[in-house]
Amino acid sequence: MNAPHDPPSRLAHLLTPAALAAQARAGALLIEVGCGTHAQYRAEHIPGARYLDTAALEAPPLFNKVPDADLLEVLLALGIRHDSTVLLYGRSTLAAARAAHLMLYAGVADVRLLDGGFAAWQAEGRSAAAGGEPPPRRANGFGAPFPGRPDYLVDMAGARALLARDDAVLASIRTWSEHTGVTSGYSYIRARGDIPGARWGRAGREGDVNSMSDYQDGNGCMLPAAVIETMWREQGIHRGLHTAFYCGTGWRASLAFFYAWVIGWPRISVYDGGWYEWSKALC
User: Fold this and answer.
1) pLDDT tens, position by position, 186-219
2) Separation of alpha carbons 250 and 152, rounded Å
3) Per-residue DSSP letters for 139-187?
């Protein structure tokens, strides 16, 4: 049997402000994703955008994905089906990437992300709206099996299984100080260290778990694919492996996953529990 071809690049799913504006005018669903930032959304947002809080997507104490039935309800309430085109942006691109990954896991085939986030929109002097959300337009059904891509997410048992395989890798999307156990990176995660056997996939500035500066330029836009792939290859992470990205709780891993997805990597996942879940299990 011939080996399957790699999927094509999906770089068109990483949008400029002009592309996002054009696609929103054409009828795509536009959503601002935030974490406790509804007040900022009401003060100023991209015209036509609805608001989605990550609290609807992940739940304490570990901030893992909510149960599938709850995730499905969130999507249907937003009017999202499997065949919807969804445009996401955030004041934090990490929050938007968290939503993007879970929508892809759900089986939404066409998920797009504003490169550089709301700051990129503002930098071009584009108009903004204030006030509440547009009227809801609930979807009657998802229209396809749910979740459509369960392979895009692994639990702790799945992470352990990948560690035992020669054709798989866990990629730690954390700072060097987190990866080497100097700090946990989070005020609410006591344990320091990293998953034995994981490879360092890099992240961003030391001391800032919201930074992905190793992946982005000064404007918060994705670096060229070749730069990112070279960075990963130096750590033994390449597209020939099944790569499961993880971080502390999921946001940075979700952005690394989305970049790998748009580049066209064929076998990728997020280990949702990350270091928080793994370290809790050791206690």
Assistant:
1) 999 999 999 999 999 999 999 999 999 999 999 9
2) 13
3) -S---S-SSS-GGGEE-HHHHHHHHT-TTEEEEE-S-HHHHTTS--SST
Listed residue (226, 218, 229) closest to 256, CA to CA:
229
Q: Are residues 107 and 31 in the same domain?
A: yes
Query: What's the structural domain count of the chain?
Result: 2
**Local confidence band at 3 (pLDDT 50, 70, 90 cut-offs):** very low
**Contact (Cβ atoms closer than 8 angstroms) between residue 149 and residue 104:** yes
35 is catalytic: no
Residue 238: inside a domain, yes or no? Answer: yes
Q: Which of 35, 221, 247, 283 is catalytic?
A: 247
With both helix axes pointing from N to C terminus, report the angle between 251-263 and 93-106 in degrees, rounded to the nearest 10.
60
Instruction: Give the closest residue to 96 by CA, choosing from 7, 188, 203, 13.
Output: 13
Going from the C-alpha of 73 to that of each of 9, 96, 121, 139, the distances in angstroms are: 30, 18, 30, 10
